[in-house]
Amino acid sequence: METESPVLATRILAGVIGDPIAHSLSPKLHGWWLERYRVPGEYAAWRVTAEELGAFLASLPERGIAGVSVTMPHKETIIPHLDFLDEAASMIGAVNTVVVKDGKLYGRNTDVYGFVTHLQEQTKNRDFRGKKAVILGAGGAARAICAGLLGAPLSFRELVIINRTREKAERLKEEIRAGITAMLKRDTGNGQKEISSGVDHFVSEIIIADWEDRENTLKGANLLVNTTSLGMKGHEPLLIDISNLPNNAVVYDIVTNPQETALLQAARARALPAVDGLGMLLHQAAPAFKAWYDPEDRYFSGLPEVTQEMREFVIEGIRI
Ligand code: ATR
After folding, report:
1. Which of 54, 152, 272, 277 is the 20 to 30 Å CA partner of 259?
2. For residue 149, which of 74, 213, 204 has the smallest C-alpha distance?
3. Which class does domain 124-272 fall in?
């Protein structure tokens, strides 16, 4: 009988790069799937400084590394070092996953996928087409979330972006518009129709409101998303009265620590669906795991599963 020799079996290596890296939850969640699917692989955490980034990435193919997760502060500055970008990464201008294939570096952004998948799962595929969303914050996370809200299948029609520093919200709006335009040009250029969201982007409206007006903008909104660091352990609280939200609105907070933020508590007190940030983090990791460790379905078919058991395992890591 032929068995795979443990010496000869190639262990697939991937990991996360960032600076600092000690608090990354990625090793925990990829480690969970490696065990669950019995994949002969490892997932490392590499502290890579901004100065080291280029050389580190260039060394990936020769070191036989399947790819990396990318976290702060490299998500945007990594782009010039990569050979190809996927649709989401080029639209958002940020990469959270690198896949090495045939010696080339492919940059992807799975944050959009993670956000959309978790929102759909938690709202049982509610139809948001043509609806209004309010987004607090205009940083990197807001960019991915806005792309997810405007694109199919969510296809929101109206986005209200509110940020303490208004100019950053204005800049985000321009970036989204530019990203959409570039995407649509490419879309019509090569005739591919896979980006069915193109038409929806055309009819969407992006409005900037002042931080002081945040409570007023909640009227008629179907979704409120906090993408700021407010409410996070060690940060200032997020001060917002959500009583203007309609009775069927969904409240989403990307803060993962604490898991139950004051915003989510306020939503639950009004019996509004409250969606926490951990699901986005878990779901964004799934396509990356598949691409590195099992692109040919040798160990499991489709994407690795995000289960309640896995959530609890990862939450333990947050509490520590
Ligand atoms: P990320 O890229 O992860 O989204 P970020 O770029 O640091 O992180 O963004 C943090 C967000 O929280 C920003 O929108 C920031 O607002 P500013 O652009 O005005 O800095 C927001 N934020 C942080 N502290 C805040 C505070 N005390 N009040 C209001 N907004 C705050």
Report:
1. 152
2. 204
3. alpha beta
- Alpha-carbon span 176 to 228, nearest angstrom: 18
Q: CATH for 12-109+279-319, among 3.30.750.24, 3.40.30.10, 3.30.450.20, 3.40.50.10860?
A: 3.40.50.10860
Ligand 1 lining (C-beta closer than 6 Å)? 137-142, 163-165, 168, 227-230, 236
Ligand 1 pocket test, pick from 228, 232, 233, 280 with the greatest ligand atom count within 8 Å of Cβ, gives 228
Q: Is residue 147 pLDDT above 50, yes or no?
A: yes
- State the maximum Cα–Cα separation within the chain, in Å, rounded to a whole number: 71
pTM of the shown model: 0.89
Summarize the confidence of residues 74-98 as an average pLDDT. Answer: 94
pLDDT of residue 185: 63
* pLDDT exceeds 60 at position 231: yes
Q: What is the DSSP track for 285-300?
A: HHHHHHHHH-TT-SS-
